[in-house]
């Protein structure tokens, strides 16, 4: 017989097995979340077949991209930077130094064909390897050895350079021979080129050529089968297979060029392939001291006996690009404010293409994809990748999003409030003086009449929603493809005014990149770019939302990054934008216009920027405080008279902050000094013991609502949370000892301290996240009793005992209060690259800790699993009342994965934002790839599920209404008849 206690234990066990997990159905994948795969800024591109181009990027990624759509067919993310990358019909060859290996990849699917690992004492040379069409490979090792690898990656033969020759080697291939070219030493009095002609099959040296040159040689370049170099004013060359030196005076060769004097040997560069070379010269104009690049095309004629000048391309502010396709040469350069030119030789064809460089920056790299039809790949300074035909853009990719420095969610305005105020109350001061109540009423009536036109659409949308969940609207309206969503914003139309949806799920994600881009993405349209801005010479690091969307006032963001001043020195720039359109925000208030410029550049060292919790009274924007370590000064932005007065009266007396130093942490109080200047006065200094160094620190969540001041226990008592808004965690290491301290930022006191022995911080990272009254951190332990990854949770309470609470109506860091800390460590199944935590509107829902994994996944762990109160022994009745799970390692549960089967690579940061649904938090992660999703740790308790039958409910209500209409008269007639009896 099952007893009551046994039944309770059975039910509790079932509850333990049903931890809230955010598994989704297959049909839901990609409906509300989106994943953008990126490769980064292209460094090189190679045509691998008629339909695909191989791109190698600054993020150490090479990928095959469709020439027709721009979609990534496959990609490989490498562990270390490549030394060389070479392609042929046999595949793709890569060499790297860490680890030392050569790898051959299948160009069709990106799979590894073979790998050759070097011995520890050897290393690859810097010279470009040779990948033959049959799959064999020749590689230089160091500066003295050449090896040949078979189709399977094994060594066939090895060749050793003679000792008398130099140390700079290059290799070329021609007609079954390998030419090992040993360049002369720069400090040699009698320099020579040594050309060793080696039989490809046997590795035997057939012949060695010795070519002399002057000690003033420079600019050695290999073009086709020729070696070019410069001696004084002479340009010399010789074929690699014979000693046949030719020379020409550079000024004489380019005598018809207007800027011929600028082609000085010290400032020219030579680019070439086959029988074409392009000579460029970079110089400064004396009048404006601006850099100009002049370029000219030269052909090799008469079997290499002479050079012929073909075309001068003029001078331009930027280099542009040069490429060679088959036997043709292409020069790509900017020829106007919104135009660039492609010149093709020997065809002599000139193609002019329009493009708005203000959105992307100048051309940084160019690659001809095909001639028939003409296709050109362009990478810009802002990391936009675009593919052109002869007239327009065919496709584009906003690869700057692979280098995001910071991102923020932005709430959109409510359409009803925004349009009503914009239409009816957007009046000047003079208009407000003459406006009367009747005209205002008439305008409002007209607005409502115009709104009647949307009534049919409203009915259709609401009745269409009867067949699905209330959240289905996003899925049906989300018709955009991922390729389209990853495209650059080209300013072809006016940005659409976006409005908030009923549940606050539609927001903008505004990101700033290291390549000078500011980009806004629509979360409800698969991350499609709404607007973008390019700031030349900027590398952004921070973004702050200083004004949210309010009635009549658009939201404002401030992007902060490093730049250069007018003199070319280092500076920090602040760019203020209208967050809905991306346009510069210019104040309409005359008194603050001079202090509220949209772009501000300062030469001070900006070491810390803090968004203050007060608004200046004129534009209603949050103040930013800028701290400079060297002078100890603090500046506020914007620094208007009204802003300074409000800051002085409301915030200055309680302005404390902390800053990391080389030896620990230091706390400051901001005071007013001479002539109103602000000074940061040190109030405490926490110096780490000798040998310790900081690993990481935590910070409170920007949006951290606390719904409950205490935690209800199973016995109906309360454990009151220690809610100190100024506390943060400092993690340091000394050898294998990891020390965790919780400090108060106002007075610098240590609230709690703990240590962990045998922790590996060399090969494994330590991460920490903070919310409400708890901290969670993750590390690798080499301890014999618990070796592996561990997640530790610290929860802080006001007292050790139940119902113990601080007797005070206000909180002050200066009170002598020491919190009680409850902690626990859990075995964790994965390594971690970053951490985040969900946030909800009122903080009622259970939180989830979100972990980014190096295995290209994102996993969400419910905070209930990371609870230090989980019982070690058999759960008591009170534990079951509190819904505590028995203590156990964090399970390796695939249902916890937000990314299901997606490969989300290189995630470094996770940010979250609340929606209007208390159950739902919005999650955005970025690094190499970007990924957006929704997370409901307590399930969606405030919205109807997808399988809820609204039609059945409606029919039931209609049936009840009809039944009431029919039965009502019958009942009344029956009662009347009963009264007559």
UniProtKB/TrEMBL annotation:
Superkingdom of origin: Eukaryota
Membrane association type: Single-pass type I membrane protein
Predominant place of localization: endoplasmic reticulum
Signal peptide: 1-23
Record's keyword terms, sorted: Endoplasmic reticulum, Glycoprotein, Membrane, Signal, Transmembrane, Transmembrane helix
Compartments it resides in: Endoplasmic reticulum membrane
A single cellular component GO annotation: EMC complex
Entry's transmembrane regions: 953-971
PROSITE patterns, sorted: PROKAR_LIPOPROTEIN
Keyword Glycoprotein included in the entry's annotation: yes
Ranges where the ER membrane protein complex subunit 1 C-terminal domain occurs: 771-980
SUPFAM superfamilies reported for this sequence: Quinoprotein alcohol dehydrogenase-like
Domain EMC1 first beta-propeller: 23-399
Biological process annotations from GO: protein folding in endoplasmic reticulum
Gene3D superfamilies on file: YVTN repeat-like/Quinoprotein amine dehydrogenase
Record note on quaternary structure: Component of the ER membrane protein complex (EMC).
Family: Belongs to the EMC1 family.
Protein name (Swiss-Prot/TrEMBL): ER membrane protein complex subunit 1
């Amino acid at each position: 017989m099952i007893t009551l206690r046994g039944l309770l234990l059975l039910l509790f066990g079932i509850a333990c097995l049903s931890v809230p997990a955010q598994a989704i159905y297959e049909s839901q994948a990609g409906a509300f979340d989106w994943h953008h795969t990126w490769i980064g800024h292209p460094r090189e591109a190679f045509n691998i077949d008629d339909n695909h181009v191989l791109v190698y990027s600054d993020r150490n990624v090479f990928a095959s991209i469709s020439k027709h759509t721009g979609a990534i067919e496959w990609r490989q993310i490498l562990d270390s930077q490549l030394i060389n990358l070479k392609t042929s019909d046999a595949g793709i060859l890569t060499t790297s130094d860490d680890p030392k290996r050569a790898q051959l990849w299948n160009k069709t699917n990106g799979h590894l064909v073979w790998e050759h690992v070097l011995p520890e004492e050897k290393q690859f040379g810097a010279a470009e390897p040779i990948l033959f069409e049959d799959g064999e490979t020749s590689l230089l090792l160091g500066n003295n050895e050449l090896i040949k690898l078979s189709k399977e990656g094994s060594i066939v033969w090895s060749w050793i350079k003679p000792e008398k020759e130099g140390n700079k080697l290059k290799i070329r291939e021609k007609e079954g021979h390998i030419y090992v070219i040993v360049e002369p030493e720069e400090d040699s009095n009698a320099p020579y080129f040594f050309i060793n002609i080696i039989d490809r099959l046997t590795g035997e040296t057939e012949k060695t050529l010795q070519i002399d040159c002057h000690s003033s040689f420079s600019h050695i370049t290999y073009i086709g089968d020729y070696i070019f170099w410069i001696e004084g004013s002479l340009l010399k060359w010789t074929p690699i297979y014979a000693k046949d030196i030719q020379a020409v005076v550079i000024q004489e060769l380019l005598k018809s060029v207007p800027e011929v004097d600028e082609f000085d040997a010290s400032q020219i560069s030579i680019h070439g392939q086959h029988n074409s070379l392009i000579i460029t010269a970079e110089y400064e104009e004396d009048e404006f001291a601006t850099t100009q690049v002049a370029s000219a095309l030269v052909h090799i004629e008469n079997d290499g006996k002479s050079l012929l000048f073909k075309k001068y391309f003029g001078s331009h502010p930027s280099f542009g690009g040069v490429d060679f396709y088959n036997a043709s040469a292409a020069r790509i350069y900017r020829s106007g404010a919104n135009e660039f030119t492609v010149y093709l030789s020997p065809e002599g064809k000139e193609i002019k293409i329009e493009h708005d460089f203000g959105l992307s920056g100048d051309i940084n790299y160019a690659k001809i994809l095909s001639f028939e039809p003409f296709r050109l790949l362009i990478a810009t300074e802002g990391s936009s990748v675009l593919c052109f035909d002869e007239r327009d853009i065919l496709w584009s990719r906003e690869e700057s999003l692979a280098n995001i420095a910071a991102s923020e969610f932005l709430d959109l305005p409510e359409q009803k409030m925004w349009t009503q105020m914009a239409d009816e109350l957007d009046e000047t001061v003079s208009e407000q003086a003459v406006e009367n109540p009747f005209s205002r009423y008439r305008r409002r009536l007209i607005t409502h009449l115009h709104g009647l036109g949307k009534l049919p659409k409203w009915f259709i949308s609401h009745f269409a929603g009867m067949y699905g969940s209330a959240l289905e609207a996003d899925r049906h309206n989300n018709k955009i493809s991922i390729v389209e969503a990853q495209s650059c914003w080209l300013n072809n139309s006016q940005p659409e005014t976006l409005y908030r949806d009923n549940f606050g799920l539609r927001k903008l994600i505004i990101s700033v990149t290291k390549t000078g881009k500011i980009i806004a993405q629509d979360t409800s349209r698969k991350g499609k770019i709404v607007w973008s801005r390019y700031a030349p010479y900027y590398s952004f690091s921070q973004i702050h939302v200083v004004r949210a969307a309010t009635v009549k006032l658009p939201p404002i963001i401030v992007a902060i990054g490093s730049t250069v001043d007018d003199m070319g020195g280092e500076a920090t720039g602040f760019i203020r934008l209208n967050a809905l359109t991306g346009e510069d925000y210019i104040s309409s208030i005359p008194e603050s216009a001079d202090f509220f410029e949209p772009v501000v550049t300062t030469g001070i060292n900006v070491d810390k920027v803090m968004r203050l919790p007060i608004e200046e009274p004129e534009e209603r924007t949050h103040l930013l405080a800028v701290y400079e370590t060297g002078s100890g000064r603090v500046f506020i932005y914007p620094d208007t008279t009204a802003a300074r007065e409000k800051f002085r009266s409301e915030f200055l007396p309680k302005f404390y902050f902390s800053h990391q130093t080389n030896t620990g942490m230091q706390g400051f109080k901001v005071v007013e000094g001479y002539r109103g200047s602000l000074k940061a006065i040190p109030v405490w200094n926490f110096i780490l013991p000798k040998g310790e160094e900081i690993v990481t620190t935590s910070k409170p969540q920007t949006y951290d609502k606390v719904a409950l001041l205490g935690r209800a226990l199973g016995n109906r008592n309360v454990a009151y949370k220690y809610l100190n808004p100024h506390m943060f965690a400092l993690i340091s290491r000394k050898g294998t000892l990891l020390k965790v301290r919780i400090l108060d930022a106002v007075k610098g006191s240590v609230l709690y301290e703990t240590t962990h022995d045998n922790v590996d911080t060399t090969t494994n990272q330590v991460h920490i996240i903070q919310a409400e009254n708890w901290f969670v951190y993750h590390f690798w332990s080499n301890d014999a009793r618990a070796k592996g990854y561990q997640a530790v949770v610290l929860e802080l309470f006001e007292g050790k005992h139940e119902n113990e609470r601080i007797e005070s109506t206000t909180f002050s860091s200066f009170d002598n209060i020491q919190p009680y800390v409850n902690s626990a460590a859990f075995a964790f199944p994965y390594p971690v690259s970053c951490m985040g935590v969900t946030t909800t509107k009122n903080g009622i829902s259970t939180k989830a800790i979100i972990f980014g994994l190096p295995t290209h996944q994102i996993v969400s762990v419910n905070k209930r699993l990371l609870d230090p109160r989980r019982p070690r022994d058999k759960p008591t009745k009170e534990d079951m009342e509190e819904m505590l799970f028995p203590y156990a390692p964090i399970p390796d549960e695939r249902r916890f994965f937000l990314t299901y089967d997606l490969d989300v690579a290189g995630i470094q940061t996770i940010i979250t934002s609340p929606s209007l649904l208390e159950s739902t938090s919005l999650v955005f992660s970025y690094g190499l790839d970007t990924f957006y999703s929704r997370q409901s740790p307590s399930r969606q308790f405030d919205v109807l599920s997808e399988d809820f039958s609204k039609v059945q409910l409606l029919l039931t209500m209609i049936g009840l209404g009809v039944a009431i209409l029919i039965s009502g008269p019958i009942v009344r007639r029956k009662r009347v008849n009963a009264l007559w009896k």
